[in-house]
Each structure stands twice: as C-alpha cells, then as structure tokens.
Write a structure and sequence with these properties.
- By secondary structure, this protein is α/β, with parallel strands linked by helices.
- The chain contains 11 helices and 9 strands.
- It folds into 2 domains: 54 residues; 218 residues, 3-Layer(aba) Sandwich (Rossmann fold).
- The structure holds S-adenosylmethionine.
C-alpha cells in the first residue's frame, strides 16, 4: 500500500483529509514523503490505530502528542488544554505591553500556564526578563515541566529563566514579588457550565478545570476565573504594570467593567485574528 492509498483510506474514514495527513506525517516523520512511497505493515497499523482513536472522539492533538504554538512544538496530552491560535495572539499583546513598560529585566507571570505555552513563548521570544509559570493543576505542571526541559535543550539554554509553581492563581508567588510583577498574562477557563454541555465531543476531552468556570460576581456566565485572576494580579503588579487576560468575546464588556472597578486604567480588549474581542488589557499606574 502506498502513502497516497493509505491517505485516501484514512481521509474517507475520518471525513477530513488534513487529519489523515497529520497522522501520516506523524507516523512517517516526513511531511514531504512521496505519495508513492510504500508503507510498511507496522506503519499502516499504527496509522490506522491513530485514526481509530480520532474516530472515537479523541482530539487529534492528543493522539499526535505535540502541537505547534508560535515558534514552539509543545507536548500536549489530556492533562492540559490544547493551545489555541487565539492565545498565540494574546502573547503578542503581552509582548507589546512588556515593551510599552520598558522595564529592565521584567518580571512576568503566566497564571494558569497549562502546557506552558504562554510562559515558554515569552521566555524564548523576549530578549530579557524572568517568567513565573503558575497552575493549580499538578498534572498540568508536569507537562509544562517536560516542555520547559525540551525548550531548554533546543535553545541550549539550561538557565532559561522560567520557574514553575503550583498556585491558586498568583497566591503562591514569593512575597518578595508583591508589587514587583510587571505583567501578568492569563488564559483562564472562561466557558460556562451550560456552554460545556454543548461543546463538541473532542473539546470535552480536554480538562474540565482548564475550560469551565462559574459565573462572575456580576452574574456573567463563565467569568469567575477571569475575575479572580484580574483581582489577584492587581495586588502583585508593579506601578506601572499591566494585566493581559484572554476571554470569550461576549465577556468583553462585563470584564472591562470589572477591570475598571478593580482599579485598572486604560482598559481595552484587543481583537483576535478573526476580529473578535479577545485579549483584555488593564494597566496600573
Ligand atoms: C484555558 S487553560 C490555559 C492553559 C495555557 N495557558 C494555554 O493558554 O494554553 C487554563 C489553565 O488554568 C488553570 N487553572 C484553573 N484554575 C486555576 C486556579 N485557581 N489557579 C491557577 N490555575 C488555574 C488550569 O489548570 C489550566 O491549565
């Protein structure tokens, strides 16, 4: 059986040509392999096994076991949220805020780091600075640790300044950082319980605690974690400093009101690549 024949078989079974291609690239380790390349029996069995898992509702990213995020290729498994393209944009917003503040060796916190996507992007793309990567989930932190070690090896920088810490939002940061954090970035869970019920099967395979939050204090569905992260960030930020928080487009207005009432100024919500409000920025002076 050739690569093209197996690709056609998997595409028909999955109803998605690009997913078949991802699977074959993973099995062969060669995206540009010729379509007439003959597949070995073992490769065929592995590829069919992966397609069967996908058909059973598992996210492609967990089956493949890694996924690109900005310049990184991150390990992902069911212990962490699959990093999303809109979060890549949130990193751009955070980097712009870091540049705007112009602090020498800025201290950055990624609150709810999951796979480490935001923290590791900032650490590798910023010219200077230190990054704290926090999460309440020990499982997620284990994945972030693997990603941190991989990035350190790839960048031949065993000292890449990232510290992983188990924490309820920012609560476990060392007290010496109070008032000394320049930028807090967070992509908290922001899906409401009722939205969760309607999510696709594969999205519901991601950790519940990474996706779902209760209503905010104003009753806005799914806003409690955004509110808590913004509220805690306020007490750790330097003056000047900034918080950058990802949210759902329909949460932009209530979250803006919340940020203002927490004392943030210049509050705005930047759009994602689809033009939907996505990254709330609040500054302190
Ligand atoms: C939407 S995921 C974001 C993961 C990663 N930052 C990303 O953008 O791909 C939210 C993360 O927040 C973490 N989280 C949930 N509640 C938390 C809390 N109270 N304190 C710290 N982290 C929390 C979850 O474990 C999860 O890793």
């Amino acid at each position: 059986m050739t690569r093209a024949e197996l690709a056609a078989e998997l595409a028909a079974s999955l109803g998605a040509r690009h997913e078949a291609r991802f699977i074959l690239d993973e099995v062969l380790g060669a995206p540009l392999a010729s379509p007439v390349q003959l597949m070995g029996e073992r490769e065929i069995a592995v590829a069919r096994g992966m397609a069967a898992r996908r058909k059973a509702g598992e996210p492609l990213q967990y089956i493949i076991g890694h996924w690109p995020f900005r310049t990184l290729d991150l390990r992902v498994d069911p212990r962490v949220l699959i990093p999303r393209p809109e979060t890549e944009q949130v990193v751009d917003v955070a980097m712009a805020e870091i540049a705007y503040l112009g602090a020498a060796r800025p201290v950055i916190v990624d609150a709810g780091t999951g796979s480490g996507a935001i923290a590791l992007s900032l650490a590798t793309e910023m010219s200077d600075g230190v990054v704290w990567a926090l999460d309440a989930s020990t499982d997620a932190l284990a994945v972030a640790r693997v990603n941190l070690e991989t990035v350190r090896q790839q960048h031949e920088d065993s000292m890449l300044p990232v510290t992983l810490l188990e924490s309820n939002w920012l609560a476990a940061l060392p007290g010496s950082l109070r008032g000394a954090v320049n930028v807090v970035v967070a992509n908290p869970p922001y899906v409401s319980g009722s939205e969760w019920d309607g999510l696709a099967e594969d999205v519901r395979r991601e950790p519940f605690g990474a996706l779902v939050a209760s209503a905010g204090s104003d009753g806005t569905p799914g806003l409690s974690a955004v509110e808590e992260a913004m509220s805690q960030a306020r007490t750790w930020l330097s003056k000047p400093g900034a918080v950058v928080v990802e949210l759902a487009p329909d949460q932009a207005e209530p979250a803006t009101r919340m940020a203002r009432s927490l004392g943030y100024v210049d509050v705005r919500v930047d759009p994602d690549l689809a033009g939907r409000p996505r990254a709330l920025v609040g500054r302190v002076r």
